[in-house]
Amino acid sequence: MTDAAHPHADALKYEDWAGEMGARWLANLKGFEGTIAPAGEALLARAAFAPGERVIDLGCGGGATTIAVAASVTPGGSVLGLDISPDLIAATTRRAQQAGAGNASFLCADAATVTLPDAPYDRLVSRFGCMFFSDPVAAFANLRGQLKPGGRIDLAVWGPPAENPWMTDGMAVARRHVEMPKPVPRAPGPFAFEEVGYLREVLGSAGFSHVDIGAAAGELAVGGAGATAEEARGFATNGMAFGQILLDYPPEVQAAAAADLTALYAGHYRPGEGVMMSYCAWLISATA
Ligand SMILES: C[S@@+](CC[C@H](N)C(=O)[O-])C[C@H]1O[C@@H](n2cnc3c(N)ncnc32)[C@H](O)[C@@H]1O
Containing domain of residue 91, as a range? Predict the structure, then answer.
């Protein structure tokens, strides 16, 4: 039951990025980054970073985007990967060093409240890292304070559940076997900004202007390019929140759900490509 003092308490339980969810993202990093790659490419193409810019990567996760931005702003520019998960920041710092991205640095902090020592920055980018704030207006206002006046932000957030069957079809299969929490509109989570007008309002209330909304849609490969139906099933049950819910049920229930999930993904498998399913993300830019 939802805690009356905190209407999003149930949703937040599954978005413990500083703890369990951050560790789970890291453990399934290849699958996650492979799955969301097309939306990330569209986001970076739209953002068109230029040499010399100083950029914040909000909710940088495993750092694929941070490292890509670091290359785009060279020479003269730099990028700060900001994330609330200590596990992700530790792993990502090592990864960037190994990639030779000397102009990328990393900080573990809550973006909702952090004051960045090297602020103000020119720009901010976030690939699916801005949907988890319990008070989004306050968090975006804080982030605006870390940017130069006129600095541009570029965000990717998921569109409506019905247009993201790559996530919701698996959830629906799991729901046939176990109880799943009911989605709460606007609660922190992947679909917090499915209604893009709400994000427009949040950004406006936080002081941003010139909000511009685009979209990236098409197919993505669940579990990464080339993953088989069984691999996609493993990615979903190990990585996605509904997989964690399944773990609370007896082995025979888990096995039955796993068989149905593999059948779902097999229906979308194309040899040489992977488990190809539709997605829709909003790409939003605005000015600080
Ligand atoms: C869906 S993942 C996306 C990771 C990365 N941007 C990518 O595309 O690979 C969301 C990320 O946002 C981070 N995050 C969530 N809430 C945050 C907060 N309040 N402050 C900083 N990072 C946060 C999580 O730890 C996680 O790494």
Answer: 14-160+183-221+281-287
